[in-house]
Amino acid sequence: MRTTWAGCVLGALLLAGCGAGEDVPDASTSSTPSATATATASGTPPTSATPDSEGVTVEVRLTADGPQPRGKRVKVKVGEPVTLTVTAEVADEVHVHSDPEVSIDVQPGETVSRTFTLDRPGQVAVESHETHATIVQLVVRP
Ligand SMILES: [Cu+2]
Prior knowledge:
Layout: H1 5-15, E1 56-63, E2 66-68, E3 72-77, E4 82-88, E5 92-96, E6 102-106, E7 111-116, E8 122-128, E9 133-141
Parallel strand pairs: 1-4, 3-9
Antiparallel strand pairs: 1-2, 4-7, 5-6, 5-8, 8-9
The structure holds copper (II) ion.
The site of copper (II) ion (CU) has 6 residues, from loops.
C-alpha cells in the first residue's frame, strides 16, 4: 500500500507534486467553500475546535470515475485550519503534499475528516494515489 511513498515524496520535492502533468484549471472555478454544516461528524469529534475559526473545508468525493473535485484551487492562509472531508466510494489514499505530509486512507463507504494547518506559503497538492490525480491545489498565502 505504501510502496509509492518514497518516490512520491521525492517527486513532490523536486517537481512540486507527484501527479505532475495534471492540468490545473486556472481560476475558472470560483472557490467559494460554502459553509456547509459539518455537524454530523462520525468518528472522531474535533477535540480542540477553535471557536470562531475561519477554517477552510474541502469536500472530496472519490468515485470509480476518479476524484472530485479535480485540480481545484483553494486559497488558504498560513496557519488556517484546513479540513478535508473525504467520502470514498472506492479505496484510495489521499495524500497532502505538505510538510509534514498528511495521508488519509479510506475504504469504500467511509467518510473521513482530517484537519491540518499549513505553516509555509506556497502550493500544496492534494492527490489521489490510486488515480494519481490532483484533487485540490492548496494555495497557501502568508
Ligand atoms: Cu502524493
